[in-house]
Amino acid sequence: MTEDDDAENGTGAEARRPGDGREPATYSTQRYLAAKRTVDDRALDEGVLDRLARSVPDSPAVLEVGAGIGTMVERLLDRGLLSGAVTYVAVDLDAASVAAARERLPERARAAGYEVRRPADDPASFVFERDGAADGPERLTLTLRVADAVAVADAIAGANGDRVDLDDGTTLPAPAAGFDLLVGAAFLDLLSWPAVETLVGAVRPGGHCYFPITFDGTTTFAPADVVAAAGSDWNVSPATTAVDAGAGAGARAGAGHRDPVPGTAQYPADEAYFLHHLVELVRGALSSGPETADAGAEPDGDEGDGEGESSVDAGRVERWARRRHAAVARGELRYLTHQVDVLGRRRG
Ligand SMILES: C[S@@+](CC[C@H](N)C(=O)[O-])C[C@H]1O[C@@H](n2cnc3c(N)ncnc32)[C@H](O)[C@@H]1O
Asked: What percent of the chain is modeled with pLDDT above 70?
């Protein structure tokens, strides 16, 4: 297997070698989502997770939206947070991520001691079964589907049987009363408020929604290296809201903040890749971003002071990205972000 293959599927030895900060030759969303798992594990609020475990009934019906490659399913299994006979529906818009989840999850379930089978009446689903499980479900029926989460929730709200028909002619399990638990990790901040309201309509009265790793406005890299000061009218995607590294003081304040990647010489798991990927996300967003009032100054003084500039200079963004990639390779780059874990209960 080549390094590029590894980067593509995120499962190869190269992808898991700890502390190897080399800049990757290629980037893949699926590898990024896999690399993000350990960062998120550290960032999750344990108190909220405990409360979640106490709130969800035995044998729940769970709907996960924006499920990516399925790391939350893995996490819930690993941590024994669900019990009994679980119905788990996971949807994501991205077909490649859903395909990766189909590859990963049966493998992970086997590693956790589950038998894996495909039900004859629904070969698109998986059943994971384990006898006498002290922690975790005895059976988890998993349906993975490429679909728009909001459209799925909308269809669920109008359904009254135990399955819901989707526009593409497929059906999904959907309890008539609604789901016991709705999960959306690193997802809520991607939606408009009306879309969130539609989503929570898929939860039964008294049921819960769990939205961990909800981005809350600040992403910071350290040590400081300013490339651009975004104007207030600059509407970039959440992951790229802040590019200046500052001292990170603002990002340290407030509930839910974690310091996921310590500035150690070696990053754990595949977190060097995670950081390289983040740098690329920022570089891409800045390269295609709208004009700003003031492009700001680079602290090392290799450009002018930015006064009077009206756009982010492509060369400056490129050099910023090179420095950031080099900092990852040296094990120096740190990433600080403000995220909130939301646990809600639907009245009823
Ligand atoms: C930041 S990723 C998080 C993935 C996963 N929850 C995790 O934490 O690893 C956001 C995911 O939401 C998916 N997504 C975005 N909009 C969506 C929508 N309207 N319906 C379903 N999935 C969506 C993307 O394809 C992506 O996989």
From this structure: 76
**How many residues appear in the chain?**
348
Query: How crowded is residue 143: how many other Cβ atoms within 10 Å of its Cβ?
Result: 19
User: pLDDT digits over 157-190, tens only?
Assistant: 888 888 999 888 889 999 999 999 999 999 999 9
Q: Atom 24 (ligand 1): residue with closest C-alpha?
A: 66
Q: Looking up tokens 């898991």, which residue turns up?
A: 16
pTM summary value: 0.82
Kindly state if the Cβ of 186 falls inside 6 Å of ligand 1. yes
- Listed in order, strand segments (DSSP E) in the chain are 61-65, 85-92, 115-117, 125-129, 139-146, 163-165, 171-173, 179-183, 203-222, 258-261, 334-345
Condensed to tens digits (0 to 9), the pLDDT of residues 279-337 reads 999 899 888 765 443 333 343 333 433 343 445 788 889 999 999 999 999 888 888 88
- Both tokens of 198, joined, read 């539609």
Q: Ligand 1: does its nearest atom lie under 6 Å from the Cβ of 97?
A: yes
Domains of the chain, each with CATH number or no CATH: 44-214+341-345 (3.40.50.150), 224-332 (no CATH)
